[in-house]
Amino acid sequence: MATAVETLDKLERRITITVPLADVQAEVEKRLKVRARTVKAPGFRAGKVPMKMVAQQYGYQIENEVLNDKVGQAFGEATSENKLRVAGYPKIEAKNDDVAEGTLAFNATFEIYPEIKVGDLAKAEIEKTTVEVSDAEIDKTIDILRKQRVHYHVKGEQSAHGDGGSDLTAKNGDRVTIDFVGTIDGVEFQGGKAEGYAFVLGEGRMLAEFEAGTIGLKVGESKTFPLSFPADYHGADVAGKTAEFTITLKQIEWAHMPEVDAEFAKSLGIEDGDLSKMRADVKQNLEREVSNRVKARTKDSVMDALIKISEFDVPKVLIDQETERLMESTRQDMTQRGMKVSDLPFPAELFTEQAERRVRLGLILAEVVKANDLQAKPEQVKAQVEEFAQSYEDPTQVLKYYFSDRNRLGEVEALVLEENVVNYVLGKSKVTDKSVAFDELMGNNAQG
């Protein structure tokens, strides 16, 4: 039996549940008899163990199971009768005051889902990103593809692509091989010495002072120079200290990028080496990537607008659950990157804001979908998977990958559902097109 629902806060409620002790005892005895049929003990055949021994061994466990079942059943009936949508799990605590003789009482404290009221979409203001893929972007991308296929020749030696010119000194873009030794106060330090060490000048792999000490040298030349390690340098033993390095240049290789010709086109998968086909293929890939990023930006704008026009309280228990999920996801990600997360603090407050946004959006989206019948339709899911498959060499394998696993297909359904919501909101709200530069959209990745 449960008392009337008490309102403790905006979303917090409490119900007091009472359970007749006789009912509990009767159920415990019933379950003990069932358990006794299979219990084994030394000196007794199975099913012949004295009930007293069975009760001693299993009584406490079964009593807890019965109480959990009785309280859970009463709680479910009470929330159902009062038409309450419980968020998360209730906190059950034994009640000791004002309890009638022969009964057990428990307080069930819980939160309920809020009433979701989505604001007037006509008042929502949304920026829709637009980006143009021009010949300049295609040229930049082709240059990046060329840099990815760069190869090196020894400077000064004749090769199929020349000798690298008459300047035999090391400069930015060259790959140099050096021996080096570093000392601090005249003493070599760990990691400060190497032979035959190769790196490309200008890529920022080495500290700027180290690269500056290498530039201008010729093969066989040596140079000694001071180098100050930054205070935040990853090597704690040398961070903030000044070392003296001596380097000897062993080899210089100049970089040759492939020409944009038929062979280059073939290396990109254009079988006949047609350059116009290659450019068309690059453009198609760029437009696909731009489309995905534009959709993502527009979706973010829609979600921001939905949050802005929809005000309601979010159950703390759902925020806590999502916070813990985000923390665990971060732990797993860092572990996969080789980091020792056991040594790192994980303050929950770092994730709370993101968790609340995700929960709030989830509640809003569910309401919009339900109110406007925006569920993902099978044909939409199939079309989305087929779109994914277009960018792969064997589309049939991609289709099989998704349609053979219900969880994977569920991920696609979630994407389609979000897109349905985005399109619905765009059709109801004030939309302003915002032209964005290609490089800005791509996060300057186009710069190489």
TrEMBL record:
Record bears the keyword Hydrolase: no
Entry-linked InterPro entries = PPIase_dom_sf, PPIase_FKBP_dom, Trig_fac, Trigger_fac_C, Trigger_fac_C_sf, Trigger_fac_ribosome-bd_bac, Trigger_fac_ribosome-bd_sf, Trigger_fact/SurA_dom_sf
Which GO terms are recorded in the biological process aspect for this UniProt protein? Answer: 'de novo' cotranslational protein folding; cell division; protein transport; protein unfolding
Subcellular localization: Cytoplasm
Q: Which UniProt keywords apply?
A: Cell cycle, Cell division, Chaperone, Cytoplasm, Isomerase, Rotamase
Catalytic activities: [protein]-peptidylproline (omega=180) = [protein]-peptidylproline (omega=0)
**Organism superkingdom:** Bacteria
* GO cellular component terms attached to this protein's record: cytoplasm
Spell out the molecular function terms from Gene Ontology: peptidyl-prolyl cis-trans isomerase activity; protein folding chaperone; ribosome binding
What's its EC?
5.2.1.8
- Quote the record's domain comment: Consists of 3 domains; the N-terminus binds the ribosome, the middle domain has PPIase activity, while the C-terminus has intrinsic chaperone activity on its own.
Q: Spell out the family assignment given in the record's similarity comment.
A: Belongs to the FKBP-type PPIase family. Tig subfamily.
NCBIfam families, alphabetized: tig (TIGR00115)
Please give the name of this protein. Trigger factor
Organism field: Herminiimonas fonticola
